[in-house]
Amino acid sequence: MLDNLVLGDEGLSLSINGVATRFDYFWLRDNARDPVSFDSRSHQRELFTAALDPHIKPTAGQLNGNASALLLDWPDLDMAAEYDATFLADFAGPTDHMRLPAPRPWDRDNLDADAVRLPFASLQAIECRPVDGKAAGSRVCCCYGTRAIWMRQHI
Questions:
Q1: Rounded to whole angstroms, how far apart are CA atoms 94 and 10?
Q2: Where are the domains positioned within the chain?
Q3: Residues 66-114 pLDDT 10s
């Protein structure tokens, strides 16, 4: 059940089953499930997110009659977008299935023996360009969809 809807400047707040939460307007517009923005058969977004105004705000918002859905009127849609309470609850906060493992830096010493190795000389043969804003000697090289960045260390 949804309750306590407040439309703010950059997002809205509401309670879902008694737990207060907040949603960003851009995220809500990008995840609208209306027929123009979302293909329910393929579960693909039809909305071109890059074309959205990053500061988009709904023109109006309300809860439906039984408080089971949020209705938002967007300036680029002819009808209200409906957000089911279950959908909002699923994305109200991080859950275990959304957590990613902690990033682990790697280098030659901690890669397994089966990892692909590139001789440094082969990187030197690839066309490289300086990395903007980095120390002198920094380079980025791209080849076959792989990017290598190295920095000359000064000792």
A1: 20
A2: 2-94, 101-155
A3: 999 999 999 999 999 999 999 999 888 766 555 666 666 666 676 666 6
Whether residue 67 contacts residue 2, with contact meaning beta carbons closer than 8 Å, is answered with yes
Note the pTM of the prediction, 2 decimals.
0.60
For the record, the structure tokens of 143 come out as 């080849």
Token pair recorded at residue 1: 């059940």
Q: Which residue has the tokens 């000792």?
A: 155
Q: Which CATH number is associated with domain 2-94?
A: 3.30.2020.30
For the record, the structure tokens of 154 come out as 């000064």
3 state DSSP class of 124: helix
User: In angstroms, what CA-CA distances link 145 with 119, 141, 142, 148?
Assistant: 17, 10, 7, 10
